[in-house]
Amino acid sequence: MSARRRLQGWGLKVKTIITDISSRYGYIINYKKAWHVKQKALAAMFDDWEESYAFLPRLMNMAQNWTMNMAPSISFTALALALQREQ
Predict the structure, then answer these.
(1) Which domain of life is it from (predicted)?
(2) Which of 11, 14, 34, 46 is the most exposed place for a label (fewest CB within 10 A)?
(3) Number of domains observed in the structure of the chain
């Protein structure tokens, strides 16, 4: 399998995996085995889906806290700039 295909692995069709394995190793794997190989490769590339979804609430909490802390400083900075222009 070429490097380009490995980088585009998430969009690679299972039939293409079967063909590539057959041409490279001379062994024909069944569709189910090729599908499992693709799923394992996706999990290795993008981590496990369960881990990602478990991390999502924490990530959203961090974003909420960041924006809550950011809004007053933005308002204060805008007010300070407006006051400087008037002086």
Answers:
(1) Eukaryota
(2) 11
(3) 2
Predicted TM-score (pTM) of this structure: 0.48
The token pair that represents 48 in the structure block: 């496990």
Residues 32 and 66 reside in one and the same domain:
no
Is there a single domain that holds both residue 10 and residue 32?
A: yes
Q: Do 26 and 56 fall into the same domain?
A: no
- The reported pLDDT for the residue numbered 76 is 54
Mean pLDDT by 10 residues, the chain (87 residues): 55 90 94 92 76 80 74 57 64
